[in-house]
């Protein structure tokens, strides 16, 4: 067991002498450098420089005794420090990768050819999100995704939703988009758009006979999809503040749709 622990400590940048010295102090403390040398197997000529390094890294503590003795930091403290350092390094690596992705490198797009695959990718992206989610979807898909969105919100993820036929959403900001015969007539299929962390994008069209979509890390497509959702938010917020807009453009803004020809 001691040999395994010694080998594992070396994976965390302990030298052989440092690992042996720390394990020796865990077994018996406090000890002088001479005493530790005898029980740990670290040569006496190397023990004090080894202890100096361990003290500098706050792995051990030097006691002001006569003669000078040393005690180890609790191994639980060392493990927690390793975990914290590892998490910090992973986060720095993630940020570095994201900066690289945001460069002008080629952004690939993957096709989605069926409903189950579309939903699986939506769930995956909700679970991976750590900062924010922008989503536009219909009630049918929301009922499937709402638990994942709630879990994301519980982790501190901010969520902005354009909801077609969705009247209630407690895990973020909901912009309610009513569904009536006019709206249905303009949508051959139900759309799903999810942008997470300015890094992931899933876009799909769900129909009774066919579902298709894409997912990508491409920053240009992500920006465009996010702007699409944002502009829908702007439009419906404006109509809330200025309901007289409906008098000019119709209850469903159909005259506005006719004006721009889509």
Structural notes for this entry:
This protein is α+β, with helices and mostly antiparallel strands and 262 residues long. The protein has eleven helices and nine strands. It has helices at residues 2-11, 16-27, 33-40, 44-56, 75-101, 115-128, 139-154, 181-186, 219-241, 245-249, 254-260; strands at 60-63, 69-72, 109-112, 132-138, 158-164, 173-177, 190-196, 200-206, 211-216. It has a seven-stranded mixed β-sheet, sandwiched between helices. α7 links the parallel β4 and β5 (158-164). The longest helix is centred in the middle third of the chain and has 27 residues, at 75-101. The mean pLDDT is 87.
Q: How big is the Rg? A: 30 Å
Number of helices: 11
Percentage of residues in strands = 15-25%
Helix content: 40-55%
Helix/strand/pairing class, anyone? alpha+beta
Number of strands: 9
Oligomer: single chain
**What is the overall shape?**
elongated
Q: Gap between N and C termini, in Å?
A: 71 Å
Query: Mind summarizing the main beta sheet?
Result: 7 strands, mixed
- Strands ordered across the widest β-sheet: 3-9-8-7-4-5-6
Overall mean pLDDT: 87
Give the SSE string: HHHHEEHEHEHEEHEEEHHH
Low-confidence stretches: none
Topology overview:
Blueprint: H1 2-11, H2 16-27, H3 33-40, H4 44-56, E1 60-63, E2 69-72, H5 75-101, E3 109-112, H6 115-128, E4 132-138, H7 139-154, E5 158-164, E6 173-177, H8 181-186, E7 190-196, E8 200-206, E9 211-216, H9 219-241, H10 245-249, H11 254-260
Parallel strand pairs: 4-5, 5-6
Antiparallel strand pairs: 1-2, 3-9, 4-7, 7-8, 8-9
Helix pairs in contact: 1-2, 2-3, 2-4, 3-4, 6-7
């Amino acid at each position: 067991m001691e040999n395994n622990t010694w080998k594992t400590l070396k994976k965390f940048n302990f030298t052989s002498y440092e690992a042996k010295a720390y394990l020796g102090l865990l077994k018996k403390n406090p000890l002088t450098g001479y005493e530790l040398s005898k029980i740990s197997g670290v040569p006496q000529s190397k023990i004090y420089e080894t202890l100096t390094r361990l003290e500098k890294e706050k792995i051990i503590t030097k006691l002001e005794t006569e003669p000078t003795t040393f005690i180890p930091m609790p191994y639980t403290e060392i493990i927690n420090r390793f975990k914290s350092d590892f998490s910090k390094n992973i986060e720095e690596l993630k940020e570095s990768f994201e900066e690289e992705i945001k460069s002008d490198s080629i952004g690939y797009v993957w096709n989605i050819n069926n409903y189950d695959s579309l939903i699986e990718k939506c769930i995956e992206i909700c679970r991976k999100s750590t900062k924010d989610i922008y989503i536009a979807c219909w009630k049918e898909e929301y009922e499937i995704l709402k638990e994942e969105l709630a879990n994301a919100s519980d982790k501190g993820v901010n969520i902005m939703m354009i909801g077609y036929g969705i009247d209630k959403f407690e895990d973020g900001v909901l912009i309610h988009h009513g569904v009536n015969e006019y709206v249905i007539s303009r949508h051959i299929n139900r759309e799903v758009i999810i942008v997470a962390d300015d890094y992931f994008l899933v876009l799909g069209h769900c129909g009774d006979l066919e579902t298709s979509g894409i997912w990508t890390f491409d920053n240009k497509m992500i920006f465009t999809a996010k702007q699409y959702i944002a502009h829908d938010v702007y439009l419906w917020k404006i109509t809330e503040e200025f309901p007289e807009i409906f008098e000019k453009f119709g209850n469903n803004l159909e005259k506005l749709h006719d004006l721009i020809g889509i």
